[in-house]
Amino acid sequence: MKKRFASLWFRHLKTDWMTVGQPQLKEIPFVLAISTHGKLIANACNALAEQEGVYPGLAIADAKAFLPSLKVVNERSELTEKLLHNIAHWCIRYTPLVAIDLPEGIILDISGCAHLWGGEESYLQHIVSRFKQHGYDVCVGIADTIGTAWAIARFGNGNAIVEGDKQFDAILDLPPQALRLEATVLQRLQSLGLKTIGSFARMPRTALRRRFGKDLVLRLDQAIGDEDEFIVSIKPIFPYEERLPCLEPIRTANGIELALQQLLNNICKRLTGEGKGVREAVLQCHRVDGKIEQISIGTNRATAHQQHLFQLFALKIPQIEPALGIELFILEIPKVEEADPVQENLWSHRIGLDNPVVTELLDRLKSRDPACEISRYLPAAHYWPERSMKIASSAQEVPTVDWQIDRPRPTRLLSTPEPIMVTAPIPDYPPLFFRYKGEVHTVKKADGPERIEREWWIDKGEHRDYYAVEDEKGRRFWLYRSGHYDDRSPNQWFLHGFFA
C-alpha cells in the first residue's frame, strides 16, 4: 500500500484553546506570556494581536507601548504538550497512526483511510470543519511524504493535497524554512540568495552536503521521497483491530449492539482462519464531543465464538454513555492465543473444562460481576494440608501430582485453622466435646488420629494429630491437636475443615 501522510498545523494552538474556554477573548487581542531573564515575553499571540503587529518573542513592555489594550495571560507550564497529546488521541478517529509534531502540529499516517470519508478531499474538509467547530484554526497538507505534507501545511496556499509522486514539484517554490532546517543553515542559504527550495534542489548532493551539511540533504531527500521517514504513534497498534466509522452518530443501545456485532464478525472470521482466539478485547466508542467511552472483557480460554464474545460485551453496554452520539467504534484485541478447535463427542454428556459451555459460563459470571473470583485448584506435592493445593494458572493447566484419596479430606478447608475448646478423656483419644463459635458439639463418632509431620525444610513447629469427627446432628468436622498432649496448654486444639 502506498504511503500517504497528513500534516496538521495549529497556527494559534494555545490561544485557540484559551478562547474555547473563555469565549469573551475572541474579540480581544491577547497573548500568552512567559518570563525569560527577568522580563515577560510573548510566547503565543491570537490572530487579533498579530494583526496589530504583536509577534512571539516580543517583549510585553514593547507590545503594551503601541497596543495598550493588549491582554496578557501567563502561560501554563507544558501547555503545548498537553494540548497536542489530547488532540492526537482525538485524531485516532481518522487513522490508527497518529504522532505529535512539536511545537504546533500533528502527523497522521492516512494510508488506506481516506476512502472511508469519500476520498482525500472530503477527508481533508471533514478534519478542517470538525476542528473549526471545536474552535481551532488548522491548516492541513496531504502528500506521499511527511516532509512535503509538513511544508504544504505551513507554507502552501491554505489546505492542499499533493498528488502522488508530485512532491518534488510541490515544494520548489517554497522557502527553505519548509524543509525543517536549523537556523544556522537557513542563515547561510539566505546570505547566498537561495530564497526558494528550487534554487538549490537540483544541485549535486555532494556540493550541498559540503556547503550546508548533511541535515539539508537529509531533509530534502525526505521531502521528495528519496529517504524514508517514519512516525512514532502515540498509541500502540494491535495486530488484531477493527474500526467502524458511522455515517450518522449512534445514540442508542441497539445501534451500539449492531456495530459491535459487525466488528466481532470481522475479527472472529480473521482469528478463526488463523487458528487463534480472543483472551482480552476492548471496545472503544469515540463520541462526537471528543470523549472516548470504553468497555473491556476477558476470557478463560482463547475463543473466536462470536455470539459468546457479544454476550460478554452486552453485559457492559449499559455502562456506555453515548451523549450526543458515537461516530467511531474501534475493537482492539490486545491478547490472543492459539485456539485448537474442540471436537465435541456427540454421544457423550460429560461436562468438563474441555467443554466450551463451561468456560463460557465462567466468562459470563466474571463479566456480570468483576468482583467475582472463580478459581480452579490443582493438587500440590506437600504433606501440610494448607500447602497441598494450588490455584491453576489456566483452565488448561494439567496437574503434576494426584489428589490424595487414601485418607479422608474435608470438602471445605479453612485457610487459617480456628482454635477451639476441647474436652478429651486421655491422650490420643478423640474429643468428647468441643466448643466452636459459642456452640457446644457432642462427638458421637470419630476416626483418628492421623499424624501429619510439619515440613521441616520449609518451617519449624509441632506436628498435628487429625481427627474426623461427627456430632449429634450428623455434622462432620476435621479437628487436630497441635503437638503432643499437654494438660498445661489447653489451647492445642483447632478446627481445620468441614466434610460434606
Report the average pLDDT across residues: 86
Helix content: 25-40%
Number of strands: 21
Spatial gap, N to C terminus: 66 Å
Strand content: 25-35%
Oligomeric state of shown chains: single chain
Number of domains: 4
Query: What is the CATH fold-level name of the largest domain?
Result: MutS, DNA mismatch repair protein, domain I
Instruction: Enumerate the spans where pLDDT stays under 50 for 5 or more consecutive residues.
Output: 343-348
Individual helix count: 13
What does this molecule look like?
The chain has 500 residues and is of the alpha+beta class. It has 4 domains: 5-161, MutS, DNA mismatch repair protein, domain I, CATH 3.40.1170.60; 167-224, DNA polymerase, domain 1; 241-367, DNA polymerase, Y-family, little finger domain (Dna Ligase, domain 1); 412-498, no CATH class. 27% of the residues lie in helices and 29% in strands. It has helices at residues 13-21, 47-51, 60-66, 79-90, 120-133, 146-155, 167-171, 183-191, 205-212, 214-224, 253-273, 306-314, 356-368, and strands at 5-10, 30-36, 39-45, 71-74, 97-101, 105-109, 138-143, 160-161, 241-250, 276-287, 292-303, 326-338, 377-379, 389-391, 412-419, 421-423, 433-436, 439-452, 464-471, 476-482, 493-498.
Topology of this protein?
Blueprint: E1 5-10, H1 13-21, E2 30-36, E3 39-45, H2 47-51, H3 60-66, E4 71-74, H4 79-90, E5 97-101, E6 105-109, H5 120-133, E7 138-143, H6 146-155, E8 160-161, H7 167-171, H8 183-191, H9 205-212, H10 214-224, E9 241-250, H11 253-273, E10 276-287, E11 292-303, H12 306-314, E12 326-338, H13 356-368, E13 377-379, E14 389-391, E15 412-419, E16 421-423, E17 433-436, E18 439-452, E19 464-471, E20 476-482, E21 493-498
Parallel strand pairs: 2-4, 7-8
Antiparallel strand pairs: 1-6, 1-7, 2-3, 5-6, 9-12, 10-11, 10-12, 13-14, 15-21, 16-17, 17-18, 18-19, 19-20, 20-21
